[in-house]
């Protein structure tokens, strides 16, 4: 077999690359998971669950820290910055950016307690029988809420 020098030989085949990329990292489950996460832009653990990093956007997290520590009268200004930064996102991050914006708006409307109450509500929902896609959606929202809580 062309390009195979040992067994098992592992290759990653991204879209549009018929030759594939050789996998040359470690052979433990965590090594494979890390590799796949890097190549596919996901954030899963070895059990297939989303990690606490899923959905987080570094450029928005910096603004969230500013939002969190700002006086109430300055938060609207920072919300505008969050909206501007979210508008620059692409791919799956667009959806995550919208969650950041919505959480910031809810905090302005309902107060800082919103993140705690919403996190508790999502935790209860995650304990119920829900579809895997809903579980992922709720886990991502919980991760973003935690960025506003810290």
From TrEMBL:
It comes from the Eukaryota. One of its GO terms (biological process) is protein folding. InterPro entries: ERp29_C, ERp29_C_sf, PDI, Thioredoxin-like_sf. Residues 55-148 form the Endoplasmic reticulum resident protein 29 C-terminal domain. Residues 1-24 are annotated as: Disordered. Gene3D superfamilies: Endoplasmic reticulum resident protein 29, C-terminal domain (1.20.1150.12), Glutaredoxin (3.40.30.10). The keyword Protein transport does not apply. One of its GO terms (cellular component) is endoplasmic reticulum. GO terms for molecular function: protein disulfide isomerase activity. CDD domains: ERp29c (cd00238). Its EC number is 5.3.4.1. It catalyses: Catalyzes the rearrangement of -S-S- bonds in proteins. It is an enzyme of class 5 (isomerase). Keywords: Disulfide bond, Isomerase, Redox-active center. This is protein disulfide-isomerase.
């Amino acid at each position: 077999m062309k390009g195979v020098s040992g067994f098992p030989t592992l290759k990653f085949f991204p879209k549009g690359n018929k030759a594939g990329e050789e996998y040359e990292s470690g052979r433990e489950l965590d090594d494979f998971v890390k590799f796949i996460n890097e190549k596919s832009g996901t954030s899963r653990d070895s059990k297939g669950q989303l990690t606490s990093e899923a959905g987080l956007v570094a450029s928005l997290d910096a603004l969230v820290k500013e939002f969190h520590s700002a006086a109430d009268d300055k938060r609207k200004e920072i919300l505008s910055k969050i909206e501007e930064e979210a508008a620059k996102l692409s791919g799956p991050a667009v959806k995550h950016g919208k969650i950041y914006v919505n959480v910031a708006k809810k905090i302005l409307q309902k107060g800082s307690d919103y993140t705690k109450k919403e996190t508790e509500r999502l935790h209860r929902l995650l304990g119920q029988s829900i579809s895997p896609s809903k579980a992922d959606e709720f886990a991502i929202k919980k991760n973003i809420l935690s960025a506003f809580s810290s």
